[in-house]
Specification:
The protein has 384 residues and is an alpha/beta fold. 37% of the residues lie in helices and 19% in strands. The chain has a seven-stranded mixed beta sheet with strand order 4-12-11-10-7-5-6, with helices on both faces. A four-stranded mixed beta sheet has the order 1-2-3-15. A four-stranded antiparallel beta sheet has the order 13-14-17-16, with helices on one face. The protein binds pyridoxal-5'-phosphate (PLP).
Length: 384
């Protein structure tokens, strides 16, 4: 019997090694890994420079606590600040914790408690971020939720107008809803957000936990639009597999997070930050995010082309290398079939095949994946 709580449905694959875009199992079978550890391995398995950076730190010291100042925290924060335009950074261990920090900071800075989030959003599994998450299935069974959060339809201008008022501390949302099914924010909605924000004084928190670190073809997904959020949160891709999260905010918010106001024992741990620092240095290499944008466009265009006659495909959408193939039926059997062929993909909701390849994926690997997907999702055609 297993001594683990059965919180996860597990796949029947035993990982043995990872290299670049490939995961190799105990039997030696190679899988093209388009899950990237759920949007984490943006630079692929065991990226040599990131591995080297972590190994170096392992040999120096592992942990000190935040009673000490660490140059690697300053350097990584400064890289995030330069990339995002947000001057202050708090390091956490996960996405949910980064969002917790954002929620606490927004409440403290505004002195208000209402936070607007969207249906189909995903913000984490802690008590506050579960309540922030606009999906019933995440909250079921846990009783009374925090009353701080009010949900609106994603992209609904009317809902936003109705919900936002002078009691609103913040509006928190994803630019592309990841777990919720690859739904992309509309420019009109962003415009309205800006308007509401200046009218009510509500802070804008962008959850970039899945969309950040180059995933959508920009360093951060908000950079596709002409906006400057008050706060962004990061995790997943930030450590390329080493647990680390971050919340970045405007300079004016610094005074509300003074000594003793918030903290974490492990947050900003030097091993985590050795990986984050190396990740940011890869991310900022000349032409890198542009290459992600181009590969994303190629992937989406080719999938649309190959699958235009598929009887099971409803819609293909995405931004950069964050792509969803919405099916007219349950996606689970197709994920299984793709696994058999050697391609690992993710679900998002019941009907969506989600692709999150490493951003370092090659065109040859993309084409191989497209071939598997075209074969698998065209199958129904032969049956019918
Ligand atoms: C994964 C995810 C989170 C939660 O991150 P954890 O590290 O699992 O706590 C929060 N927000 C978004 C958008 C995510 O995709």
């Amino acid at each position: 019997m297993s001594h683990l709580f059965p919180t996860y449905g597990r796949w029947n694959i035993e990982p043995a090694a990872g290299k670049g875009s490939y995961l190799i199992d105990q039997t030696g079978k190679e899988y093209l890994d388009f899950t990237s550890g759920i949007g984490v391995l943006n630079f692929g398995h065991c990226h040599p420079d990131i591995t080297e950076s972590v190994k170096k730190q392992l040999d120096k010291f592992w942990h000190t606590s935040n009673l000490f100042s660490l140059p690697v925290q300053e350097e990584t924060a400064s890289a995030i600040a330069e990339l995002s335009g947000l001057e202050r950074v708090f390091f956490s261990n996960s996405g949910a914790e980064a969002n917790e920090a954002a929620i606490k900071l927004a409440r403290k800075a505004t002195g208000k408690s209402k936070i607007i989030t969207c249906y189909q959003s995903f913000h984490g599994r802690t008590f506050a971020t579960m309540a922030a998450t606009g999906q019933e299935k995440v909250r079921t069974g846990y009783g009374q939720m925090l009353e701080t959060f009010k949900y609106i339809e994603f992209n609904s201008i009317q809902d936003l107008e109705d919900a936002a008022d002078n009691e609103t501390a913040a509006i928190m949302l994803e630019i592309v809803q990841g777990e919720g099914g690859i739904h992309i924010i509309k420019p009109e909605f962003i415009k309205k957000l800006e308007e509401i924000r200046s009218k009510t004084g509500a802070l804008l928190i962008i959850d970039e936990v899945q969309t950040g670190i180059g995933r959508t073809g920009k360093s951060f997904a908000f950079q596709h639009f002409d906006i400057k959020p008050d706060i962004i949160t990061l995790a997943k891709g930030l450590g390329n597999g080493i647990p680390v999260g971050a919340m970045a905010g405007r300079e004016e918010l610094a005074e509300f997070f003074g000594p003793g106001s918030h903290g974490s024992t492990f947050g900003g741990n030097p091993i985590s930050l050795a990986s984050a620092k190396a990740v940011l240095s890869e991310l900022t290499k000349e032409g890198f995010t542009r290459s992600v944008e181009e590969k994303g466009k190629l992937l989406i265009a080719r999938l649309q082309d190959e699958l235009q006659e598929s009887p099971v495909v409803k819609e293909i959408r995405g931004l950069g290398l964050m792509v969803g193939i919405e099916l007219k039926e349950d996606a689970a059997p197709y994920l299984k079939a793709l696994q058999k062929q050697g391609l690992l993909t993710l679900p998002a909701g019941p009907n969506i095949v989600r692709l999150l390849p490493p951003l370092t994926v090659t065109e040859i690997e993309l084409n191989k994946a497209i071939e598997h997907i075209a074969q698998t999702l065209a199958k129904k055609k032969q049956v019918v």
